């Protein structure tokens, strides 16, 4: 697996909910293997071929990620060097993931002393050139959407025998303060250990740094001291450069490599008044985010889609989020709830103050939100507007307070007024600039541009909520960001005879924990100070003025003047382009054209890859082999997600965990297997289970891809015993017995569960029987009985047991396997259900390659591919075709519950459901796994 490396540079910032700590925003890896491209969605299966890798052919010997933040402006340079050690030429790949909020500004390849530089061109022109190349069959697009917040840049080049290549990619962006901090996140996921490996971050903040936190998901206690952090008043230096030996995640595991996120969070010191102004090289930038302002009361109407398409997890997550959000309302706030399908309902006809009683009442209402009919967005939003207007008219709202509508929807309008243009018009007219409208688009069926434009037109912004187990947290995170307005209608004024080319200088709201940034150009380079004024409506009137003066960075940072160059100008250009791109979405066609033309000119002038430009990379081999890097819009990202769903190659060669738990459905035993893979794992790996040196328990890790779970039911009668894991080499056997309800439920359907497990380790002489009452252990010739009602820890030479009272039993069998059995307690007096058990494998990589059994067979790599997504019986659950083990199966999108983290409620995990007793997926038939005794082998 050498020649394969992955590491990520991430900047968490910009405009997505900070409640999502694991957002991944950037990455780079270099690999010898073919990048796992998303194939065109034509439904034809690509042959599942193993890609060959020669361990010693390409060596990536150096990777450096160097980020310099100058007054929030992040300039990141990623350099990777590789050597082709082979006698023949080799294709070498370079892949980088960068934040979707960043612009690529340069890319170069240095080969045999020659430097090949990517050229930024107008997108249309680049496309023509590119299409010619496509016809010649020469090329591929370089940038693809990746995850929620990244995009992936991938390029490959043919390198002659015994030659070096150096790839360098530069990207830039303005960090956005959210919930009181800036965040720079780097994902470290090398696939091999690298001779020279370095992450360096330098932060220069003239306002003074109030704190810098560095943490990481992969730093063990031993690695922690390797992170160097030096913070002085205005500068922070953080570096991490582990040696080859230290790049192992587990000191004893051959092939293990560190893997995880490296996160730097910081904030700057804030003083009352104007904020901070930097004037350098003829451009200025003004940061405004005063501390200690009192919150302005908020009047908010939640307008919630309860149409049929919200069925399933979405509506449940919405309920959860609403209950949490309502609890967070302040007593000075007023609020209302509107729910709509093709019919509009209200919690109360008028806005209510958030008292203990109304909060309690509204929570009860929120718990009962259910999915019903069609989607009439127009009527829902207009109802919310009317409620706010009426409350204003009747003077029940505080004079100084902020009016806001939060719309949550998951689909397109299909009832009532359903023409998007007409809805835009109706809403704009009804709102009349008197309140803000924020739109949350839930899942992939929403037309995000429709919501985006509607928000832009009404002083608000739109966000996507991704269908995932953390959707409820995404919703709450968004609310947290907007729930504390400090100032309304903020104007930042500069003398018009002194500055021009100002970026936006009027803001509808300033939220707690955020920051307003304005930049502009000085008309006269020699000006050394000018007047600045800020006005706003807050709890009290807000008005400050003062002088901005030219800062002398040479004095502030005497040793490093050369670092800063033209950052104010580039920051100004970045901000201007971003704002123009936003503005180009609204307005008349002529306005749009002129705004777009301006944004294009600036993108070209400053070499930014924006949605209007492309970077053309010419490969050295032949002059007409072109590759083109684009910037994707949110709409394109969403489309890619929809497409990717149907065609992405699934190859689950990294088992981070597998699990087996119960089902409660009508006499069916449900086995469910989860394959969580890393994002990069579709690059095939000869030693998959070693790649990450063990398993990673965290589902919240966005690198995991919960959508890759497979699940199925097996129809079996209570009493049946299945062999779940069998490894003759190591002598490990796990059997599980099914039990049924203790009485027949009123609907006549008896649920089945796992009620008993028999576990044997022949070589170690260990024997374990686990039931819902107790645990019998046979070890070293002695029997011990443990009760679930106690907590215990047993350490033996061959087996460790950790029993957590009424909850879980973790079993570690020496040098072979580790798993956990969960006890699901049911109310004692439940008329028919009873306690049951769940089984989760934590680590199986030491078992032999011959391990088998209903669960054990999935300890091996399994490759599958899902294509041809099509409507299923229920709109929430599309059908698809799965190619696996040479079979073509009809599968259905479904949900399963994972109980490892939340033993009571579980978490919903999307999975591909395989019908028909999993025939075609499992080896043989389900009946082949049935045995007669808890300790019998087949
Ligand atoms: C490279 O070429 C030499 C001589 O032709 C040969 O002996 C050697 O095995 C080759 N090495 C590889 C890695 O192919
Ligand atoms: C990109 O990088 C190359 C190599 O360092 C340099 O020559 C070139 O000027 C850079 N281009 C831009 C637009 O900065
Ligand atoms: C490749 O780069 C390494 C390190 O810079 C250098 O030692 C080596 O000589 C180079 N090899 C070739 C063939 O240029
Ligand atoms: C509301 O409840 C909180 C705690 O639950 C209590 O401290 C507060 O006094 C209550 N307010 C009113 C007005 O009852
Ligand atoms: C899968 O479903 C399609 C109809 O959607 C049917 O024509 C086909 O025979 C099914 N294939 C299998 C293997 O069940
Ligand atoms: C599944 O297997 C059981 C026997 O174990 C059988 O009775 C049942 O019909 C099978 N179901 C399907 C859908 O094949």
Automatic annotation (TrEMBL):
The VIT domain covers which part of the protein? 44-173
Q: Which GO terms describe its cellular component?
A: extracellular region
UniProt-recorded Gene Ontology molecular function terms: serine-type endopeptidase inhibitor activity
Compartment(s): Secreted
Enumerate the UniProt keywords alphabetically: Glycoprotein, Protease inhibitor, Proteoglycan, Secreted, Serine protease inhibitor, Signal
Q: Which GO terms describe its biological process?
A: hyaluronan metabolic process
Q: Which residues form the VWFA domain?
A: 299-482
Superkingdom classification of source: Eukaryota
Could you say which residues form the signal peptide?
Answer: 1-26
Chain's role: May act as a carrier of hyaluronan in serum or as a binding protein between hyaluronan and other matrix protein, including those on cell surfaces in tissues to regulate the localization, synthesis and degradation of hyaluronan which are essential to cells undergoing biological processes.
Family stated for the protein in its record:
Belongs to the ITIH family.
Q: What is this protein called?
A: Inter-alpha-trypsin inhibitor heavy chain H3
């Amino acid at each position: 697996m050498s020649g394969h490396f992955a590491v990520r540079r991430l900047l968490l910032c910009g405009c997505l909910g900070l409640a999502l700590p694991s957002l991944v925003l950037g990455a780079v890896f270099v690999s010898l293997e073919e990048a796992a491209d998303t194939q065109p969605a034509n439904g034809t299966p690509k042959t599942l071929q193993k890609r060959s890798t020669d361990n010693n052919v390409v060596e990536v010997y150096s990777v450096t990620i160097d980020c310099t933040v100058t007054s929030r402006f992040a300039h990141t340079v990623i350099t990777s060097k590789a050597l082709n050690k082979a006698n023949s030429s080799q294709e070498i790949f370079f892949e980088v993931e960068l934040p979707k909020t960043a612009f690529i500004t340069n890319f170069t390849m240095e080969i045999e002393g020659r430097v090949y530089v990517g050229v930024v061109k107008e997108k249309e022109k680049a496309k023509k050139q590119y299409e010619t190349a496509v016809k010649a069959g020469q090329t591929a697009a370089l940038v693809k959407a990746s995850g929620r917040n990244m995009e992936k840049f991938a390029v490959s080049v043919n390198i002659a025998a015994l030659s070096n290549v150096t790839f360098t990619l530069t990207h830039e962006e303005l960090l956005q303060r959210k919930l009181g901090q800036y965040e720079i996140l780097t994902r470290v996921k090398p696939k091999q250990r690298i001779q020279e490996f370095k992450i360096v971050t330098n932060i220069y903040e003239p306002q003074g740094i109030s704190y810098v936190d560095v943490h990481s998901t992969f730093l063990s206690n031993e690695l922690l001291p390797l992170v160097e952090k030096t913070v002085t008043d205005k500068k922070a230096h953080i570096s991490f450069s582990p040696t080859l030996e230290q790049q192992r995640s587990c000191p004893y595991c051959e092939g293990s490599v560190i893997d995880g996120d490296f996160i730097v969070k910081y904030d700057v010191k804030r003083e009352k008044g104007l904020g901070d102004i930097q004037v350098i090289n003829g451009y200025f930038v003004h940061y405004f985010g005063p501390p200690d302002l009192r919150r302005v009361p908020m009047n908010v109407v939640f307008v919630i889609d309860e149409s049929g398409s919200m069925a399933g997890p979405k509506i449940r997550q919405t309920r959860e989020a609403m209950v949490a959000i309502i609890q967070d309302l302040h007593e000075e706030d007023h609020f209302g709830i509107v729910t709509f399908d093709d019919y509009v309902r209200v919690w109360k006809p008028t806005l209510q103050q958030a008292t203990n009683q109304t909060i309690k009442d509204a929570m009860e209402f929120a718990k009962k939100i259910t999915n019903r009919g069609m989607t009439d967005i127009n009527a829902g939003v207009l109802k919310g507007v009317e409620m706010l207007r009426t409350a204003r008219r009747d003077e029940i709202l505080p004079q100084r307070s902020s009016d806001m509508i939060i719309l949550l929807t998951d689909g397109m309008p299909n009832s009532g007024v359903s023409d998007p243009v007409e809805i835009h018009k109706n809403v704009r007219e009804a709102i009349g600039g008197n309140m803000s409208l924020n739109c949350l688009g839930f899942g992939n069926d929403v037309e995000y541009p429709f919501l985006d434009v509607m928000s832009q037109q009404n002083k608000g912004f739109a966000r996507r909520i991704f269908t995932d187990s953390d959707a409820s947290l995404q919703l709450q995170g968004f609310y947290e960001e907007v729930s504390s307005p400090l100032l309304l209608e903020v104007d930042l004024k500069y003398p018009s005879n002194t500055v021009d080319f100002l970026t936006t200088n009027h803001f509808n709201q300033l939220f707690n924990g955020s920051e307003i940034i304005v930049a502009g150009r000085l008309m006269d380079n020699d000006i050394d100070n000018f007047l600045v004024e800020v006005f706003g409506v807050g709890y009290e009137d807000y008005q400050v003025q003062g002088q901005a003066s030219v800062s002398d960075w040479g004095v502030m940072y005497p040793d490093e003047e050369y670092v800063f160059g033209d950052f104010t100008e580039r920051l100004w250009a970045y901000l201007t382009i971003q704002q123009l791109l936003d503005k180009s979405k609204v307005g008349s066609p002529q306005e749009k054209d002129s705004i777009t033309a301006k944004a294009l000119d600036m993108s070209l002038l400053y070499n930014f890859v924006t949605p209007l430009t492309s970077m053309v990379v010419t490969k050295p081999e032949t002059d007409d082999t072109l590759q083109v890097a684009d910037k994707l819009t949110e709409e394109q990202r969403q489309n890619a997600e929809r497409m990717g769903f149907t065609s992405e190659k699934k190859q689950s060669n990294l088992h981070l965990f597998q699990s087996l738990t119960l089902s409660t459905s009508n006499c069916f035993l449900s086995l469910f297997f989860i394959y969580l893979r890393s994002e990069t794992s579709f690059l095939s790996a000869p030693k998959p289970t070693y790649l990450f040196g063990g398993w990673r328990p965290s589902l919240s890790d966005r690198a995991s891809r919960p959508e890759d779970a497979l699940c199925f039911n097996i129809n079996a009668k209570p009493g049946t015993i299945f062999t779940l894991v069998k490894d003759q080499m190591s002598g490990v056997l796990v059997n599980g017995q099914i039990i049924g309800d203790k009485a027949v439920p009123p609907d006549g359907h008896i649920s089945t569960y796992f009620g008993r497990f028999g576990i044997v380790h022949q070589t170690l002489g260990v024997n374990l029987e686990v039931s819902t009452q107790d645990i019998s252990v046979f070890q070293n010739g002695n029997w011990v009985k443990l009760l679930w009602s106690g907590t215990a820890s047993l350490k033996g030479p061959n087996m460790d047991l950790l029993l957590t009272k009424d909850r879980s039993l973790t079993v570690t069998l020496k040098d072979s396997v580790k798993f956990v059995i969960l006890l699901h307690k049911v109310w004692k007096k439940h008329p028919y259900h009873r306690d049951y058990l769940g089984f989760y494998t934590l680590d199986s990589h030491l078992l032999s390659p011959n391990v088998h059994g209903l669960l054990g067979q999935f300890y091996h790599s399994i490759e599958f591919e899902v294509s041809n997504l099509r409507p299923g019986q229920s709109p929430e659950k599309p059908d698809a075709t799965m190619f696996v083990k040479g079979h073509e199966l009809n599968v259905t999108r479904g949900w399963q519950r994972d109980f490892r983290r939340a033993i009571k409620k579980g978490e919903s995990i999307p999975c591909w459901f395989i019908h028909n007793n999993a025939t075609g997926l499992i080896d043989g038939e389900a009946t082949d796994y049935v045995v007669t005794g808890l300790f019998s082998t087949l």
